[in-house]
Design brief:
The chain contains two helices and five strands; from the N terminus they run βααββββ. By secondary structure, it is an alpha+beta fold. A five-stranded mixed beta sheet has the order 1-5-4-3-2.
Length: about 80
Amino acid sequence: MYVLRTYEEAIEQIAALPNEALDHYAQVIDVLELAPWSGDPYNMSNPDGAMRQLVFGPNGRGMVTYLVLEDQRRVDVLRVLWSE
């Protein structure tokens, strides 16, 4: 299991999510705690890189960008975006 740390900017972005996105974001948290490497590489030219992104919600309207710190078993949530 990984510990999650959420950056201040991401906390503000999560607070701004519409109600319809909240259950989907909760599922993202579950994935990040258990299997953070399942997200796509942030930089496709570095497929094994620690910076990852995970699409969520209906029609892939949400995206979480995060960093996996494997040696600390920690995931830092950097950005949470939602498109209307």
